[in-house]
UniProtKB/TrEMBL annotation:
Keyword Transferase attributed: yes
Species this protein is from: Cherax quadricarinatus
InterPro entries according to UniProt: PEP_carboxykinase_GTP, PEP_carboxykinase_GTP_N, PEP_carboxykinase_N
Leader sequence segment: none
Lineage of source species: Eukaryota, Metazoa, Ecdysozoa, Arthropoda, Crustacea
Protein name as annotated: Phosphoenolpyruvate carboxykinase
Keywords attached to this entry: Kinase, Pyruvate, Transferase
An annotated Gene Ontology molecular function: manganese ion binding
Pfam families with a match to the protein in the record: PEPCK_N
Keyword field contains Protease: no
One BP annotation, GO: response to lipid
Domain Phosphoenolpyruvate carboxykinase GTP-utilising N-terminal: 59-170
Entry GO CC: cytosol
């Protein structure tokens, strides 16, 4: 594959932008963990309506927003209008590029910082470990050893997620 200087410059610029966004997000997240009382703040919904959600879903979204402290919420409705809106937002941000050869064809490059699921970081959550994880013979290390109880998962989420969406749209 031959890349032009312009393509190399675009790739380098994307990498710098991603790095700057990551740093800004980290700073905003740290500030949010320390300074924001989310209970006293109303949710800023930039697309969709919370009232259109079923009560259980709305409760889940509100609880998640209180924990993650996003700047805005986007309530998905799956409409054609929403698709056009999201494509426009992503195109304006330089995340995607329209390819004119085919109708509704877009190029999205993978962020080098993105990673696929990692086995050692993947956990199965159930009430009883024996429901999901086979018990290996004595002295043998099982390969499917990452089990977690629902209580431990809730504690891990409460520890790791506060402010993780600060300055961003959830």
């Amino acid at each position: 594959m031959v890349l032009s200087n312009n393509t190399n410059n675009n790739i380098a610029q994307e990498a710098r932008s991603t790095s700057m966004l990551s740093e800004a997000s980290r700073v905003a997240s740290e500030a949010a963990k320390k300074n924001i009382d989310f209970q006293s703040r109303s949710l800023s919904v930039i697309y969709g309506k919370l009232v259109n959600l079923k009560p259980k879903v709305r409760n889940f979204v509100e609880e998640s927003a209180r924990l993650c402290r996003p700047a805005n919420l986007h309530i998905c409705d799956g409409s054609e209008r929403e698709m056009r809106h999201l494509l426009n937002v992503m195109q304006q941000a330089g995340m995607i590029e329209h390819l004119p050869k085919y109708k509704n064809c877009w190029l999205a490059r993978t962020d080098p910082g993105d990673v696929a699921r990692v086995e050692s970081k993947t956990f199965i959550v159930t009430k009883d470990r024996s429901e999901t994880i086979p018990t290996p013979k004595e002295g043998v290390k099982g390969l499917l050893d990452n089990w977690m109880s629902p209580e431990d998962l809730r504690a891990a989420v409460q520890e790791r997620f506060p402010g993780c969406m600060a300055g961003r749209t959830m």
